[in-house]
Amino acid sequence: MTMTNNDHQHGDDTAPEALEVITISVTHPQGFGDHIFNYESVSDLFKCERCGRYEITVRDDETGAITECTGPAA
User: Which own/partner contact pairs does 27-35 have at CB distance under 8 Å and 24+ positions apart?
Assistant: First the structure.
């Protein structure tokens, strides 16, 4: 929603609530497979800034170990 002076003059001074995006970088040379995970509060998931994959998709189903980062997505 974009407010204009015209909207304000008619008494509509309510603004939509903004989404709060929280970014937390988590890096660790061992254990994260060179991924750099950032927490996305909107999705409540950790996403690698290098390869763009989510943490839950780079974990081995059996062991839970994180696979190596493949680098930037092509």
Answer: 31/66, 32/66, 33/58, 33/66, 33/67, 33/68, 33/69, 34/68, 34/69, 35/66, 35/69
pLDDT at 32: 82
Asked if residue 72 has pLDDT above 50, the reply is: yes
Q: What is the DSSP letter of 54?
A: B
Strand locations in the chain (E): 25-27, 36-40, 45-48
Which tokens is 29 given?
Answer: 């040379």
pLDDT tens-digit series, residues 26-49 = 555 556 888 888 999 889 999 999
Is residue 42 within 8 Å of residue 21, measured between CB atoms? yes
